[in-house]
Amino acid sequence: MTEEYRESVPVLTFPRQTLVSLLVFAIVWEVLSHLAPYLGIPPFAIPSFVRIARSIATITPIDIVVTLARVIAALIVSFVLGLALAMAMYRSDSLNKYLHPMIRLLMAVPVVSWILFAVLWFPGVEFRIGFVLVVVCGPVFLVDTLDAMHGVPRELRHMMRSFRPTTLQYFFKLILPAILPTIFTSWKVNISLAIRVVTIAELVGAVTGIGHQLSVAQELFSVADVFAWTLVLVALLFLLEAVVARAEARILRWRT
Amino acid sequence: MSGPPPIEVRGLRKVFRQTTTGQAVVAIDRLDLAIAPREVVAIVGQTGCGKSTFFDLMIGLEAPSEGAIHIGDKSPYADFDHFRGRIATVFQQDRLLPWRSALDNARLPLELIGLPEQEQRERALMWLNRLGLAQFTNAYPHELSGGMRQRVAIARAFAVGPDILLADEAFGHLDEVTAAELRDTFLKLARECGSTAILITHQLEEAIGVGDRIIVFGKSAKLLADIHVAQWPKSKYGLLREVIQSTLQGNVADPRLVL
B246: which of A15, A127, B180, B254 fits an S-S bond (Cβ 3.0–4.6 Å)? Predict the structure, then answer.
């Protein structure tokens, strides 16, 4: 065997620049919080980190759990619906031609409009929030996976068909593995989207959840509480993204 | 073991309609051909002569516009599922699935025919070993060189024990040494397995070196020549190459083809 065997080496990167930029922001914030009275800014507008820490200590875990459950449930429903519809549209060109314009239309509707529609259409708060999340995230999953399905190289499709798979084998042995990288990217995009959308949706009518707590903090003019809950949201986003990134690294290890 | 069935092509015609102009393009125009079981046939022709269309029709991925291909008494298009595990292909590029290891790529057709997992693994390993890839069964395609990837593709084709092997310019993209080595391996294995092999190529050396028969396609897969290589002494291979070349260039059979 004279041919070359190329072994790939995974590359690890350390986000030093990220830490530096966060540190700079924190220092500037802390300095501003102390200088605020001298700059004519009300003290509550830029709370110190001590004050924010006190707000963080009062955070109620149940609100975090409720928001997290809403996000995860809605993302799973959106993904299943988006993938199922994408598969149907991939299989049927005429269905694709009918549905594609409608999907683009849905994606163009602002989140606020969906929230208003949900309030007017549905009496249940949970259903309203779920509806808004699914109607915003579902089309993103659908369009991403459908594009990825159409992007599976013709050569691979041709090879696979030459071995005469059944429809299910064709999907599970070629299409699904081929679109997995896009699915993971879509999950990352949708996690960020869902975290932002759930907060807005919870502002309207919800009596639990981070969005509701943000609404309460706004009514109390408590910037420290807003900051604390925002930090929780950001931490949740990073946590969910880390979970997806870990699954991605494990499942797509062939890429490294 | 009954062996592979004979292949019969009768009045085969394939017409495509160009998507931009709507104009009809005759890719194959009334081709008649018979291939005996276990024959190794090389099909040569210039680019655009209909070789690849013939390949797709043989696999059953395209329907003939007119005429028919019969493998035994079945059509590869109409009886598509019948040929699962009976026809295997090797392509110009290896076309391995990048997310599968060499072993998992080699066993892909075995999964499709529903063999038990243990048997899939054993058969795929056996073929990878035979192709000199015993050390690389867990390597992913991007970790292998072009020649090694093509070996995996050959292992994948043979693993299923097909009646008919189809190779479309399978060695054309490799360097000469690797291509010659793989060609010899392919031919040896095809003969050992008793498969009928059809190799589509534009390289005359490859056709002469591999085929029991060389079929020369002109425009629209017009059958210009059907050469039984065994009738030509090795000392005249140079002349054979010359007359095939002149046949291809003139789009008409060179009279020197009749010895």
Answer: B254
H or E element, residue B16? strand B7-17
CA distance B227 to B22: 37
| Helix (H/G/I), strand (E/B), else coil: B74 | strand
Cα distances from B127 to residues A233, B25, B150, B158, B185, in angstroms, run 54, 41, 13, 7, 12
Within a domain: A120 = yes
Closest Cα of chain A to B251: distance in Å? 30
The DSSP element (H or E) to which B42 belongs, if any, is strand B40-45
CATH code of the domain containing A221: 1.10.3720.10
Q: A155, B91: Cβ pair inside 8 Å?
A: yes
> Which residues does A14 contact at the CB level (< 8 Å), separation at least 6?
none
* pTM attached to this predicted model: 0.85
Cβ contact (<8 Å) for A5 and B93?
no
Q: Which residues contact B13 (CB under 8 A, 6 or more apart)?
A: B26, B28, B29, B30, B31, B64, B65, B66, B67
Q: Which of B195, B119, B187 is nearest to B162 (CA)?
A: B195
The number of domains in chain A is 1
Instruction: Outline where B169-219 has alpha helix (H).
Output: 176-193, 204-210
> B109-147: per-residue pLDDT in tens?
999 999 999 999 999 999 999 999 999 999 999 999 999
Contacts of A166 in chain B (CB under 8 A): 112
CB contact under 8 Å between B112 and A163, yes or no, is yes
Which pLDDT score is estimated for A177?
Answer: 96
Tokens of residue B129, six digits: 């070993």
Asked if the structure places residue A66 within a domain, the reply is yes
B32: tokens are 């008649």
Fold designation for B38-65+72-257: Rossmann fold (3.40.50)
Calpha distance B78→B65 (Å, rounded): 13
Write out the residue range of the structural domain in which residue A176 sits: 59-255
Q: Which band of pLDDT confidence, cut at 50, 70 and 90, is reported for residue A14?
A: low
Token digits of residue A205: 């009518």
Q: Please state, in angstroms and as integers, the Cα–Cα distance from residue B209 to each residue in B2, B130, B149, B198, B232, following that order.
A: 28, 22, 23, 13, 12
Between the two ends of chain B, the Cα-to-Cα distance in Å is 37
pLDDT in tens, A204-226: 778 999 999 999 999 988 999 99
- Residue A91: inside a domain, yes or no? yes
User: Amino acid identity, residue A14?
Assistant: F
Question: Does position A7 have pLDDT exceeding 60, yes or no?
Answer: no
3-state class of B8 per DSSP?
Answer: strand
Backbone angles phi, psi at A24, to 5 degrees: -60, -45
- Which two tokens mark B143? 């970790």
Establish if A3 belongs to a structural domain: no
Q: Which of B57, B71, B99 to mutate to test binding with chain A, by most A CBs within 10 Å of its CB?
A: B99
**Mean pLDDT confidence for B153-182:** 91
Q: How many CB atoms lie within 10 A of CB A238?
A: 12
Count the neighbouring beta carbons within 10 Å of the beta carbon of residue B209: 15
